[in-house]
Write a structure and sequence with these properties.
Largest sheet: 10 strands, antiparallel
Oligomer: single chain
Number of helices: 22
Low-confidence stretches: 595-617
Structural class: alpha+beta
Mean pLDDT: 87
Strand content: 15-25%
Shape: globular
Length: about 625
């Protein structure tokens, strides 16, 4: 399918102000109609969403990040590019699927560097372009299965990026300024002598969230107007000092330099990414190294002991999120902690280790090494906070008060253990994650789009040999690939068996129902359950271990053993269970809807009365 009509060429001024350079944006409105005509995953998901409330306007979410093709030893910096993807907030849990995100632009970093205003100017142009498509119309009509739907999009978008990309988009100083957090007025990287005497100011080491004074959009308006006025008065050195003190930069042609753009880009809609805050060169990466270095210096334990525990013979649930022995071994390998100041594994590696870290800290370190109470308490609170955050991603619910308690406890004990001078801006950024969930009703992070970036990095960029026209060619390739993936992803919206099945006359006779088909696993929309999958029902304090899946009379059922709770620790971070009933049959949809949503990672069968130990994310 030709996609030339779905790409817009836009000219932006260069730094020398003597010429323009071209960037390319996807015409999302027309591309969505293309997807609708193919009746694939995105169109059906969009139709479902619009059908829930035809009168509401959807909220566009935009993600962007820099992607470097090649590998660590041979990066392809000529093709290093910024990618932007877009989706709709109302897709909720479906945002965890790559097919729910559409490519919007590809821009080589070398091209970006010559544009006046950089990424901030590009995003300003892109936002205006998309608002012209979506917000200045009476709606975008699209048809699925001979039913016509009308898509309305809100004028205000959401922006999801890591801290570096957010800083470039907004034109803020970030960690380079006195105020590393653009959402707070009084949080400084460190206190100067004069500020130390002023109780209004605090630092990124502050654990008392009530001390933070939030920035408002009106505050930003005042700051930007002040910068514009002072630029005409101050010399370059004085003006740079003013920007450092304010935390904002006056970027010519940038997003916040334009009053119209400022009116549409709200601070509360610019989201800190939990993955980068916690798991990708994040707080847990750094604290693991600090903790295990301290542990090795003061006790006989070390990372190698944790590695041995992680590589033990755990029997693993087949649920989504279940970790294999090879994944645990890979995540705990010793070289990830050697010759570095932080744990070098991926965000997924850290999620694999979370339940094992809780068990190691609570059962092995804390009882025997009381002199490490501050270090242990800090790391425990951090892991519990991360567990709550990523539980919210699956369950769409978050106990914000409990999250804040863990975050405050973590930072309090971290400063006692390692000193306030070790704190980084991310120690403060984490306090905004619960606020973001409260405002928008879901947890948004960069996991999905980071996975999606791999397609550009490995399958698109290396095969475009000419740099001339690279951006347009790469964007068209991503859009074409999106069409292919969109068709394949329709299965996510259906229910059915996975793998081999067989009719069971014996079971049909025993149950007194006709036509029983037996299998080992099935998928129900996003969920996949089957043999070896464990689901925990916190309210009834029961657990269900699946031994088979069956289908009869248009309904899918789970067959399994029911366990009763013996004891639990750290709010079901791990728990002990005993067999209560065997060969129980329950409707699959009920189990998936009411169970703890695929949070179970591993369980270990004991040869004693207590039959199962469950470690939850």
């Amino acid at each position: 399918m030709a996609l030339r009509d779905d790409i817009e060429q836009v000219a932006l001024a260069t730094n020398d102000c003597k010429s323009n350079t071209d960037v390319y944006f996807t015409r999302l409105a027309s591309y969505i109609t293309v997807l609708a005509s193919r009746k694939g995953f995105f169109a059906q998901l969009l139709a479902r969403t619009v059908l829930l409330d035809a009168s509401r306007s959807l909220t566009l979410v935009m993600y962007s990040d820099e992607v470097v093709p090649g590998n660590v030893l041979a990066p392809d910096n000529q093709r290093k590019s910024f990618l932007v993807y877009a989706s709709f907030k109302e897709f909720n849990e479906w945002l965890s699927l790559a097919e729910a995100w559409l490519p919007v632009t590809v821009l080589r970093t070398k091209t970006l560097d010559v544009i006046l205003g950089g990424l901030s100017a590009v995003m300003r142009a892109l936002i205006a372009f998309l608002q012209d498509q979506f917000c200045l119309t009476s709606g975008i009509a699209f048809a699925v299965d001979n039913i016509t739907y009308l898509l309305h999009v809100q004028k205000e978008f959401l922006f999801l990026k890591d801290e570096a990309a957010m800083k470039r988009m907004l034109g803020v100083k970030g960690a380079q300024g006195m105020k590393p957090c653009f959402k707070c007025k009084n949080v400084l990287y460190a206190l100067a002598n004069s500020q130390a005497r002023d109780p209004y100011f605090t630092t990124v080491a502050e654990h008392r969230a009530q001390r933070f004074d939030p920035n408002t959009d009106a505050d930003v308006e005042v700051v930007m107007q002040h910068l514009q006025t002072q630029k005409e008065i101050l010399n370059n050195k004085q003006f740079e000092e003013l920007q450092t003190l304010s935390g904002f930069k006056l970027v010519e042609q940038g997003l916040l330099s334009d009053p119209v753009s400022r009116a549409t880009v709200k601070l509360n809609n610019c989201l800190y990414d939990p993955m980068h805050v916690y798991l990708s060169s994040g707080l847990l990466n750094v604290e693991l190294k600090l903790f295990f270095d301290r542990l090795a210096k003061t006790t006989a334990l070390s990372w190698s002991d944790f590695e041995k525990m992680a590589c033990a013979s755990w029997t693993v649930s087949s649920c989504i999120g279940g970790s294999s022995a090879s994944e645990r071994k890979n995540a705990a390998r010793g070289r990830l902690m050697q010759k570095t100041d932080h744990y070098k594994g991926s965000a997924s590696d850290l999620l694999t280790l979370l339940p094992l870290l809780l068990f190691f800290l609570h059962h092995i370190v804390r009882p025997a090494h009381g002199h490490l109470i501050n270090e242990t308490s800090s790391l425990l609170a951090l892991v519990l906070a991360i567990r709550l955050v990523y539980g919210a991603k699956r369950t769409m619910t978050l106990d914000s008060a409990k999250l804040l308690m863990h975050q405050q406890e973590h930072l309090l004990y971290f400063c006692k253990a390692y000193g306030a001078d070790v704190c980084r801006p991310k120690h403060h950024f984490q306090f905004h994650i619960g606020q973001q969930f409260e405002q928008h009703g879901l947890l948004l992070d960069c996991f999905t789009c980071e996975r999606k970036n791999a397609e550009f990095k490995n399958s698109v960029a290396p095969h475009i040999k000419r740099l001339s026209g690279f951006e347009a060619s790469a964007l068209r390739s991503l859009l074409q690939r999106q069409l292919v993936h969109d068709s394949d992803a329709v299965s996510h919206l259906t229910s059915g068996f996975c793998g081999q099945t067989q009719p069971s006359v014996e079971l049909a006779s025993k149950l007194g129902v006709p036509g029983v088909v037996l299998g080992t696993s099935l998928h129900i929309e996003r969920a996949r359950v089957g043999l070896g999958c464990l689901r925990i029902f916190v309210a009834s304090r029961r657990a269900f271990l699946v031994t088979a899946v069956l289908f009869s009379q248009e309904t899918y059922y789970l067959v399994g053993d029911l366990f009763s709770l013996v004891s639990e620790e750290l709010d079901f971070s791990y728990s002990f269970w005993a067999v209560e009933t065997t060969s129980l049959i329950v409707p699959a949809k009920d189990a998936i809807a009411t169970g703890l949503h695929m949070l179970f990672l591993t369980y270990l069968v004991f040869p004693v009365a207590v039959s199962v130990i469950c470690l939850l994310l």
